[in-house]
Amino acid sequence: MSAATTTAARPGVLTLCLLHVRFQFLETVRVPIAVIGNLVFPALAMFFFVVPQDAVAGDPLQSTVAVASLSLFAVCSACLFSYGVGVAEDRQQPFDPFVRALPAGPLPRMVGRIVNGMIFSLFGVVPVVLIGWLFTAAAPSAIQLLVGVVTLVVVAVPFTLLGLAVGYSLPAKAALPVVQVILFPLAFAGGLFLPPFLFPAWLDTVSELTPTRAARDVLVQTLTGEPAYAYAWVVLIGWAAVFAALAVAAYRRDEGRRFR
What we know:
The protein is mainly alpha-helical. It has one domain (10-259). It is built from 12 helices and no strands. The longest helix has 32 residues, at 60-91. One of its GO terms (molecular function) is ABC-type transporter activity.
């Protein structure tokens, strides 16, 4: 294929990606509860478990850590439900085999799914940040907040890949409880609901090996300057590699079963 042909083909791929982003966004917002659910739970957790505690809400450091932890929970929840349950539900639709068999390949649809997952993940962060700003002493600078958002997108990668692995491995009825079983233990073990300094020594050691704890500490470092533990990025990258391998294997296995 000549360079001219390749260059001419690029706008077509970009156009298809944008169409899938738009289509999947509209598909999601037409079911408001799918958006509202992701907004409400982290915000309620912030409002009922952080704001009433003067020792936390009145301390700039602790309140910022709480905002970071619950923002990460919102992102993890959105990633696992959007990709895990969402992909599993899509696979059951009669239209899905047709779309996957189109000559455009999996890239435009995958890009649309990932971009929308990031959009709705960040939607879930907005009420947590607003509550932290209005009702607590959390006051990161504008630069810290901007870098924090970028960090959230980066640390969401392992959870995106994990969601895709679940979604392409299981039917929707099984994906929902599996996502719940994965999400809440990871959130607790990662210190998203209870600060890790309250953990016993053995649980703190286990916690540092989880992707949620690594992501939490990296995000807290971005927003407060408190250093993350030494190998947090190693843990994040390691889990991302494992989940990527699982997602690719699940996708290929599903394609082999349905399109052989």
